[in-house]
Design a protein that fits this description.
The chain is of the alpha/beta class and about 260 residues long. The protein has helices at about 20-30, 60-70, 85-95, 125-130, 140-150, 155-160, 205-220, 225-240; strands at about 10-15, 35-45, 50-55, 75-80, 100-105, 135, 165-170, 180-185, 190-195.
Length: about 260
């Protein structure tokens, strides 16, 4: 008899230029983790700019999620772009019914190009809605400051944990340095830090890659510290091998396996 498999559930926006759900799926494939996905928004963008972001209707999102989970037991969830409060509340209602699920939330506020994805004003409220169901939230330093209005990584992490998140990984806490430093804050007060050499150039989909890799590793039984450390290295290595299509940003090459 074949082994029962619990695929990762990927929830987020479709980015036709290689980030978002496409990055999530590629990361799961590289780490040999099966996955299923639910789209929250369609976007018209490339690595230079966002032309338009169109949220799906909340009822369609709910129907897709419920239908999918009728036959697929998804105990590990990665959340990316949540474009509005209606989608956030629908997802929160769903997660409230689940028991012992592991949820990693990458709170996307803008595209990698800096383009507007429509969540500027709702971002803080979306985090408040989903935080109680979140095992780990993974903002970069700028996102953490914007979501909390706190001046530094530690203060921002404390506020997000106060919202109900069990742990907060703030990425690139020293963005002007030669190394990328990711710092993990947990509700019990423990702090874990890992760093990699900063890759030169700009890249599209690094946050998606990191958070999806963490989710995949957690689903394989890794501890949170180990998952964060390996996912940080995995993401860094994907940039070294990045694809250059001639656009504004390079695309991480996520083909390496664990």
């Amino acid at each position: 008899m074949s082994k029962l498999v619990f695929p990762n559930l990927l929830i987020g926006g479709h980015d036709p230029s290689g980030a978002g759900l496409q990055a999530d799926i590629e990361t799961c494939a590289a780490l040999e983790i099966p996955c299923v996905s639910v789209i929250t928004a369609l976007t018209v963008q490339n690595t230079s700019r966002v032309v338009r972001a169109q949220p799906v209707e909340a009822d369609l999102f709910r129907e897709t999620l419920l239908t999918l989970c009728e036959e697929v037991d998804c105990r590990y969830v990665k959340i990316g772009l949540i474009p509005n409060r209606a989608i956030a509340e629908t997802l929160a209602d769903f997660l409230q019914l689940q028991k012992n699920w592991t949820v990693v939330f990458d709170p996307v506020l803008v595209a990698g190009s800096g383009g507007n994805l429509g969540v500027h004003e709702d971002g803080r409220e979306i985090v408040r809605i989903l935080a109680p169901f979140t095992s780990l939230i993974t903002p970069n330093l700028n996102e953490a400051k914007r979501l909390t209005t706190q001046p530094d990584a530690e203060s921002a992490a404390c506020e997000l944990i106060g919202d109900g998140c069990k742990a907060v990984l703030i990425t690139d806490v020293e963005p002007s340095g030669a190394a990328v430093i990711n710092r993990l804050f947990q509700s019990r007060g423990a702090i874990f830090e890992c760093s990699v050499t900063r890759a030169q150039g700009t890249y599209h989909g690094t946050g998606c890659t990191l958070s999806s890799a963490i989710t995949a590793l957690l689903s394989q039984g890794d501890s949170l510290d180990r998952a964060v450390e390996f996912a940080t290295r995995f993401t860094s290595e994907s940039l070294v091998r990045a694809y250059d299509y001639g656009g504004a940003q390079r695309l991480p090459n996520r083909t390496k396996k664990k």
